[in-house]
Amino acid sequence: MTSRNRWLVVVIFALAMAWVESAVVFYLRTMLNRIDPYQPYPLPLLHGFGEAELVRELATLIMLTAVGWLAGTSVRTRFAYFVIAFGMWDLGYYAFLKVLTGWPHSLLDWDILFLLPLPWWGPVLAPALIATLMILFGTLVTQTGPGRVPAWPRRTVWCLCAVGALLALYVFMADALRVAPQGAKALRHLLPELFDWPLFLLAIGLMALPVLALLRQPSESGTPPAEPDARRWLDHFERNRANRPEPDWTAPVTVRPGALPAVIRSLEQFQLGDGGGPASLIAINADGFRNRTPELRAIVNHWFREEAGHARLLACAVDRLGGQRIDSHWSFTAFCLCRKWLGVRFELQILTLTELVSTAYYRVLQRHVGDTPIVAMCGLILRDEAGHVAFHRNRLVSEGCSPRGFLGELWRTQFWVCGHIAATVLWISHRACLTGIGGSRVEYYQEVRRELRRFVGALAADAQKRIIRSGRGVWQRDGGPDLVNERKPMPTV
Ligand SMILES: [Fe+2]
Ligand SMILES: [Fe+2]
């Protein structure tokens, strides 16, 4: 059975159990005329019911543990399926109780959550948040995709999560602890009035740490880690360096006069943004990536040398059109600050997306600008960017990233959303240029989507190949400049 189907069976089981639970509570509360548990004398003394309820709660936990045990194949996945079942059962319980009884009226209605060792009280929203975290955590652990090993948070994260759980327990039992010295009667009459939301939010923040840790630390591939194929990449950059036909900047300007000011403004900004800034990775932890091997450091240097080459070409174009080279712009400053402080993973993703959406820009520019040197410049830059994009794909596959499986779907979604945000930021700044030369918004976004789709599709195919190869025991390094689909023919200069 695939892990997706296994997840589904566990969820169906938990929801069926939730119906049984809510049906029992419906019968009990109807008999006792207290559909809403928050009313005077909330825990009446009824012969035999209390004991039966306590054993029923224990039996429920045993059933949830048993289904987790059967569904998982290791201690971690068994625990993960248990928490999925627990979370689904809890959310399903409230949903079905609402269907059967009309209660809870809102997520802030008080409920008695558990009876041991003292009654736990809290608004319905509180256990619902915890249940959601449980489902997320279990799903992230179990739905890692084929050939991947479930990730697991570090011990420190678990310790902080345990502190959060203890805090939450304290918040649920704070009033019971206060009246407990007055005896069982006081506990049966207890009706709390104030829920300590600030403390509970701190607790839920700590309990969310394992989920956040899993989102930050993707599951490991079952295949051995590898570096991008260094020799092939170094050869690729050397070939590119030797083959850089310079556009004829002395040729007469043939940009449509009406569009010229917008084209100049656009190229001025690109001259700064495409290689005109810092010629290296600038994230505070960039050395962790760059210094993995001397070859990787050399590849990164080649990559940024080509970017600096783009800035030089764009500066030539700006000079030729009579524009001004700029050395700062608020948007570029914000871009660099994000790159610096959000870490190298974020920086690499933001640079990949920038290269994908810039490719769309250069394509539209090349198609419509009608000026031979600028067309030639776009051709050179597009060729280089195709290599950079392929390098990023190779890098991601080497790190075990795959857009398949549940985590892969999450990654693909955020990549798609961030790609559209980057594309829109670029469009806002450069639409006057692209529409001025005869391009359109539809054409530009079509190019953006084509690039994003092609990147994710090729990444999925490469990741799959990697898994198949390692499954056969013939591990080969993926990658190298596989530019078959990406390289555009060099334009005639
Ligand atoms: Fe570039
Ligand atoms: Fe690039």
Write the layout of secondary structure elements.
Blueprint: H1 3-31, H2 49-71, H3 75-101, E1 110-114, E2 120-123, H4 125-142, E3 148-149, H5 155-179, H6 184-189, H7 197-207, H8 209-216, E4 220-221, H9 230-242, H10 260-273, H11 286-290, H12 294-321, H13 330-341, H14 344-368, H15 372-398, H16 405-436, H17 441-471
Antiparallel strand pairs: 1-2, 3-4
Bound molecules: fe (ii) ion (2 copies).
One fe (ii) ion (FE2) is lined by residues 274-275, 307, 310, 381, 385.
Whole-number count of domains: 2
Any low-confidence stretches, pLDDT <50, length ≥5?
Answer: 221-225, 472-493
Spatial strand order of the main sheet: 1-2
The string of secondary-structure elements, in order, is HHHEEHEHHHHEHHHHHHHHH
Find the structural class using helix and strand composition.
mainly alpha
Percent of residues in helices: 55-70%
Mean pLDDT: 85
What's the count of strands? 4
CATH C-level label of the largest domain: Mainly Alpha
Number of helices: 17
Q: For the terminal residues, how far apart are their CA atoms?
A: 58 Å
Radius of gyration, whole Å: 30 Å
Shape: elongated
Bound molecules: fe (ii) ion
Largest sheet: 2 strands, antiparallel
Tell me what the CATH architecture of the largest domain is.
Orthogonal Bundle
CATH topology of the largest domain: Ribonucleotide Reductase, subunit A
Summarize the structure.
The chain is mainly alpha-helical. It contains 17 helices and four strands. The chain has a two-stranded antiparallel sheet. It has a two-stranded antiparallel sheet with strand order 3-4.
